[in-house]
Every structure is written in structure tokens, then in C-alpha cells.
Amino acid sequence: MSKGELLVLRKELTSLLDKGFIRASNSPAASLILFAKKPGGGLRLCVDYRALNALTKKDRYPLPLIQETLHNVAKAKWFTKLDVIAAFHKIRVREGDEWLTAFRTRFGLFEWLVTSFGMANSPSTFQRYINWTLREYLDNFCTAYLDDVLIYTNGSLRQHREQVDKVLTRLKEAGLYVDIKKCEFEVKTTKYLSFIIEAGKGIRMDPEKVKAIKDWEAPRTVKGVRSFLGFANFYRRFIRNFGQIAAPLTRLTGNVTFRWTAEEQKALNTLKEAFISEPVLAQFQADRDTVMECDSSGYVTAGVLSQYDENGILRPCAYFSRKNTPAECNYEIHDKELLAVIRGLEEWDAELRSVEKFKVVTDHKNLEYFMKPRMLNERQVRWSLILGRYNMEILYRPGKQNIRADALSRREQDLPADANDDRLRGRLIQVLKPTTSYYEEADKATGTIAMSTRIRALLAAT
């Protein structure tokens, strides 16, 4: 750890000890620690509980259903949103099990007396606790999604204030306090569970969910047109007169001079509008089979959240596309693909945690084994803590079959003018970077370590 991280660690450990959240330990088990950056700045102490979580019997206590929550708040006139501070630390670890939570630091071995971020059952346990705390008010004028509490009122402002007072009183009695900086009081419009709720106008989708489609600029080359049409063709069954609408774009893929006119722009705009409207775009429902498709190019991460409808047809619910930072552009290909998965999980956290299980589709086969015990760098360990919150299955699908996410991660507008197709480079890397175990087996098989060393050097120089 750096000198700065050691200072933060000492301060954090002192604070946790003073609050009675941790104690010194002599446990035979110990997990590693690391720091993650907080969204607002600063560092958060995290523990790598992958091994513990793999052995933990999962608590399947459900999170609130998004559809039911939105139905309850749709006609409200006033909203107050509360953010509970250090929510997981309000739940004690069962007596006798504290040793399982032990973690090793530069300053000694410690164990938790309360639940912590990164433990598999922390979210479900806290959801049970806050539901019990607010049981008289839930679905009446209040809802709670983990540490986010929303109070909604159909009546007057005075009535709303009375209801807010009741909720705050009950939270205080339960030892739960809120972060005033993150709260909203007596507002007419608020964002909750990735939806915008506005008094008098009901509920609408957060524009960020479809921004990746709305911002898709006109292709500049035939390759760009083909990429867009590859994305569009997957949804053609939902779009009436698709062939007629797409005809101007289809013509550009033939043996003609590339000229982008008002006719092609109209076709592009019409299809983009169709992608973010019914019947193409479906409302997310927690009781449907869910798929998150992710992809990363050298410069962009992207994803599509979809569900199978009552006819067994896969329909999109939301999209995202985000440019990588210069540092992220230098990640190894497997880290770029994992970054796409992490961003998808963060983008659709509420939706994905409301389903029993979902599938993640990626075109990088190594990600299927990521959650298995293995050595990870610090960034990957941070990501593993995020992955540990979700009940999911990672599936491999070749890039040529992962059309939707692939197209969103390769919009021409996001790529440098001199960018090559990174998919070829990625496949080359996968071929030319054998694992350490491969070298060890090769040494044993050939019996000629010197020859193996020469081959290894040649591969490294390629």
C-alpha cells in the first residue's frame, strides 16, 4: 500500500474500533483488503470476500419489485427521498461467526462485529430489516430499496410532512440515520430506481437508458452503415415496414458511391425512434428471464438489457454506451470486457437485483472463470466485490453473434479516425499469450527447459 493509503487505513481502523464495528482477531481465516474510490472522492475500505461468499448459503430475501413500486408512486404529488448512512453496519454478525469475517492488514488481524460491504448476504439482510422497521408505512406512503427510502404523498404538503416525520421517527427508533447531503425534501420531481417520477405527469424512463441510441450519429462509411443495420436487423420483426424504412441505408452497402443525404438521415432517425419506443422497447419486469449483453471495443464499453416476453422473444429494455478513459483504453482485452460488465451492472443495478437470476453475455471466454479462486490485480478484486452482489451466470458468445452490444461499442463517432478493428488484436493476444501452467506443462513434456525458454522469449517478443 502507498503511504497515503496506510494513513487512510489507520484512520479507518481506529474509527471502526471506536464505534465497535470491528475488533482484534485471532481467526485462522483471513481475507485481503483493498481500497476503492468513492463516487464523491476519498477511499473506501473493502475486503475481498470471494472465498467466503462462495461458501455462504445465500439469503434470497427479495428486493422490492420495480413495477409495484412505480405503480404505487405514479399519482403522488409530493416526494421526499432519504439515504440511510452506513446501512450494512446496523446489522450484527451472528455471535460465534465473527471469525469468518476476519481480514488481514498492515496493522494486524481484525474481524467484523457487524455486516459489511462485500458480504454476500448483506443486502438481503438489510432489506429484511428496513422492511420490518417501516412495515406499517410500506406501500401506503413509503417504499424502501435497500438504503434508499422514498416517501410519496397524494394529498397536501402538510400531510406529506406528517408522513416524513413518521418515517424519520421510525428510522431513529431503529438506530438508522440519514445523510442530509444526499436527501431530497418536498420535491415535485425525483429520480428513483432509474425512473423519473414527476407530480402530475407520472413516470417516464430516465433518458440515460436510451441515450446510447438517441446519440448514435450518422455513419461515415459503409462499414458504419453495416454495423448499424446489423443492430437494427435484430429488431426488424417489431418494426412495421422495416425493409422500406431501411432501404436508403441498405442501398449504401451495395456497389454505389457513399453519399449521405436527407433521405438516409430520415431512415436513421426513424429507426432510432423505433428502437426506444414500443413495441421494440419493453418495460422491465422482475418476473421475466433477463439477459445483459456487454461488449467493449478499444475505446468504448456498451451493453443492452433485454428480457424474454410472453412469446419467448428477446426484447430490449435499456441501452448504454460509454467512452473509455485514456487509461481504460490501455487495459488488457479481458479487463476491457469485464469493465463493460461492471458498467452494465452499475447502470441497471435496481433492475438486476430485483430478479432471481440473470445471464450476462460477453464475447470474451475468459470471463466465465473470473469468479473462481485465482490471483487478481487490485482493480479486478474491486470489480469482483461488485460482481459478488448479483446472482448471475456469465455466458460466452462469439463477437459475430453478440451483434447488439458489439454495434453499440463500435459507433464510428466514438472511435479515433485511425482506429483499427480491435477484435482482431484481441484474438491475436488470446492466441499469443499462453498461461504459466501451459509453460510448466510444456517443460515437463519436452524435458528441454532451454528450448522452452527460447520459445517463450519468441512469443513474448511477438
UniProtKB/TrEMBL annotation:
KW Nucleotidyltransferase (keyword) present: yes
InterPro entries with a match to the protein in the record: DNA/RNA_pol_sf, Retrovirus_Pol_polyprotein, Rev_trsase/Diguanyl_cyclase, RT_dom, RT_RNaseH
SUPFAM superfamilies on file: DNA/RNA polymerases
Protein name: RVT-1 domain containing protein
Transmembrane segments: none
Lineage of origin: Eukaryota, Fungi, Dikarya, Ascomycota, Pezizomycotina
Domain Reverse transcriptase residue range list: 16-197
Entry GO MF terms: endonuclease activity; hydrolase activity; RNA-directed DNA polymerase activity
Keywords: Endonuclease, Hydrolase, Nuclease, Nucleotidyltransferase, RNA-directed DNA polymerase, Transferase
Superkingdom, taxonomy of origin: Eukaryota
Pfam families named in the record: RT_RNaseH (PF17917), RVT_1 (PF00078)
UniProt entry tagged with the keyword Nuclease: yes
